[in-house]
Write a structure and sequence with these properties.
The chain has about 425 residues and is α/β, with parallel strands linked by helices. The protein contains 15 helices and 15 strands. It has 2 domains: about 300 residues, Alpha-Beta Complex (2-enoyl-CoA Hydratase, Chain A, domain 1); about 110 residues, Pdz3 Domain (Roll).
């Protein structure tokens, strides 16, 4: 297991693209040198044909096991169909067709990034989050703040579940957990909703919502005045929701807190990477030294918000906890839909090597799968296509669709609005049998 994880650390998740920016740039320069670069005088159709030709040359040649994952003639036939329809489709529709083609391999790491404004895709001034019991409005521009904290019943004339199913072909995923996790961004993207047929003639999108104990009402969201997610009002601030422990430092790479009343040491590990301000080995030394000087009956490692990175970064803490295993404390690891890539690997290693109990929800990918990602950028549209270069076998003699928790605990909208964290609460009160 150790050998496998050590190999796997390199760039398995898209969250690691910051680390590989220089590499990506170099690859792009090398590739573009072999491809005609569009000028202002080249018409739109020619630019797209150049991009699709570049994709057809580069993507199959680079992706691990391409012929196995993208059977012929289906792949080439669809690519040819997109080429033939260029004059009939706008840029967004071409992009969605390409996203659908790449997603046919059903690999969470292999995808066309959901484009932003510079590619003609507009995010609506509202944000959605899936909970174990449905979809809810969690951020919004001031004009739509009345919907904050409300459950989404319909978007247009469709339920979220119906649109969730319609989006499946366009979202690269290995299980329904990741499909649902990713779909929330698609459900607030104007061009996607237009493609799904839920945009009104005047450009508005009707979100029918209901608050706990209230009556349904409709908020019509328009794209006329976009508000970036960071500038939207959060449901936490609007409704003055109590501060749950996991929310204390969401932007930190890693942090810890000692809960004296329960003698629990809580460590939140949000990125499988070294914080430039504090190397993880130094952080781990601080945590372990603190644990040595205080009565610790349980250690809780929170991986619920970790999308991956370098699998070996956490090893100093993992090794240190193993050496102290005789202290009598027990180890719990929290996982969920956003636990992805190297973070999932770490959860597996904690369970296999440290007898940790996994608490929470299913992860967003299969333990056995493709990774170590790289990207290509189409020269004219600048669309980014992510692909995989290795296959990783983490579970022998089985091929589960996700890493499942030992103790399953979901988080409902009511929990969120009350500031409760039932996953952490379960880990805090669970008693391990001898």
């Amino acid at each position: 297991m150790t050998r496998i994880i050590q190999i796997r650390y390199a760039l398995r998740s898209k969250t690691r693209l910051i680390v590989t920016a220089c590499l990506v740039s170099c690859l792009s320069v090398i590739s573009f040198a072999q491809t005609p670069v569009a000028t202002a005088s080249v018409d739109r159709e020619t630019r797209w044909r150049q991009d699709l030709k570049f994709f057809a040359d580069e993507f199959p040649a680079r992706h691990k096991d391409f012929d196995k994952l993208y059977p012929q003639p289906a792949f080439n036939n669809e690519l040819a169909a997109i080429q033939a329809d260029i004059s009939k489709l706008d840029d967004a529709e071409i992009t969605l067709r390409l996203m659908r083609l790449v997603a046919t391999a059903n690999i969470g790491h292999t995808n066309v990034y959901l484009p932003g404004l510079k590619h003609g895709f507009e995010s609506l001034p509202i944000s959605l989050t899936w909970y174990s019991d449905g979809l809810a409005v969690t951020r919004a521009a001031p004009d739509y703040s009345a919907a904050l904290g409300a459950r989404v019943l319909r978007i247009g004339s469709h339920t979220p579940e119906e649109l969730f199913a319609a989006l499946a072909p366009y979202i690269a995923h290995e299980n329904t957990t990741w499909l649902k996790q990713q779909s929330s961004n698609f459900l607030v993207t104007f061009q996607v909703l237009r493609h799904l047929g839920v945009v009104r003639a005047d450009g508005g999108i009707d979100y029918t919502v209901v608050k706990l104990g209230g009556k349904p009402f409709t908020v019509t969201v328009k794209r006329d005045h976009p508000v970036a997610v960071r500038d939207q009002i959060s449901v936490i601030d609007a409704l003055h929701i109590p501060m749950a422990l996991y929310r204390k430092q969401p932007d930190s790479y890693y942090w810890y807190e000692y809960l004296a009343d329960s003698r629990a040491l809580y460590v939140q590990y949000n990125r499988c990477a070294n914080d430039p301000k504090l190397a993880f080995k130094d952080f781990a030394n601080d945590v372990l030294a603190f644990a040595d000087d205080h009565p610790v009956e349980r250690v809780i490692i929170d991986l619920r918000f970790n999308g991956g990175g370098n699998s070996i970064v956490i090893w100093p803490l993992m090794s240190g906890l193993r050496k102290r295993d005789k202290s009598g404390s027990h180890l719990y690891v929290l996982i969920g839909p956003s636990t992805f890539s190297s973070a999932q690997d770490n959860a597996i290693e904690f369970r296999n090597g440290s007898h940790a109990t996994l608490v929470g929800e299913s992860t967003g990918e299969k333990p056995n799968g493709y990774g170590e990602v790289k990207t290509i950028t189409l020269p004219n549209s600048a669309l980014t296509v992510q692909y995989c270069t290795k296959f990783f076998l983490m579970v022998k003699d089985a091929d589960p669709s996700a890493l499942e928790p030992d103790i399953r605990v979901g988080r409902t909208l009511e929990d969120a609005l009350a500031g409760r964290d039932p996953v952490l609460e379960t880990a805090m009160r669970h008693t391990t049998k001898p």
